[in-house]
Amino acid sequence: MVAGGTRAALTTPALEALWPMLDDPPGCLLSRQAAFQVSNLPPGTTLGPDGDLDVFVLPGMDATPPPLVAGGELVTAFNDRPGTRELVAHLASPAGGAVWAARGGFLSPHTSFDPSLHGDPFDLRLAGLLTAAPAVRFDGSDQLPTAIGTGTFWTGIVDHLAGVPLDQVLEQIELGGAAERTD
């Protein structure tokens, strides 16, 4: 049930995946994408409950409130100097996100973050979903070791879409995981 079928799923650039939703009539009705995708929408696209596109939390498997699936960024320090520690502490603080929130495209993980700092109404809507979520989880592939998450798992998904039998794909992913554990 993918717009354009398997071939489109394999060949459509991620930054273009939302565009068919804006066709009249829509070429697709749902797309699971990262929030940063909105920066690639055509000018004039309106976001929100009464707009061209909106967002919602995927429903769970049962009646319990589902966790919000999210992504994130990491800060890494390559030395242990006082100035480096100070910068990392600032970037990880609620105050460190204030400038980013005003510019748009940023959500703070802090429950104490002032939502009025969001300069973009869509970001404010996303922040509301984030703070209302009973739990926030990274996508499964984001939690896997790199050799699997962006390696054998990713390749396996693409191979399966291209017709490789699921059992074979799962075996290759497992072999990649075994290689990762022995390195």
Give an account of the 3D structure:
It is a single chain. The chain is mostly helical and 183 residues long. Among the domains are: 68-138, no CATH class; 140-183. Helices cover 39% and strands 3% of the residues. The chain has 7 helices and 2 strands. The protein has helices at 5-11, 82-91, 98-103, 121-132, 140-143, 146-161, 166-182; strands at residues 68-70, 136-138. Strands 1-2 form a two-stranded parallel ribbon. Helix 6 packs antiparallel against helix 7 (166-182). The longest helix has 17 residues, at 166-182. The radius of gyration is 20 Å and the shape is globular.
Structural class of the helices, strands and pairings? mainly alpha
Main beta-sheet strand count, sense and barrel state = 2 strands, parallel
> What's the number of helices?
7
Please write the string of helix (H) and strand (E) elements: HEHHHEHHH
**Helix proportion:** 25-40%
Overall geometric form = globular
Strand content: under 5%
- Distance separating the two termini: 39 Å
Mean pLDDT score, rounded? 87
Total beta strands: 2
Widest sheet, order of strands: 1-2
Compute the CA-based radius of gyration. 20 Å
- Uncertain runs are none
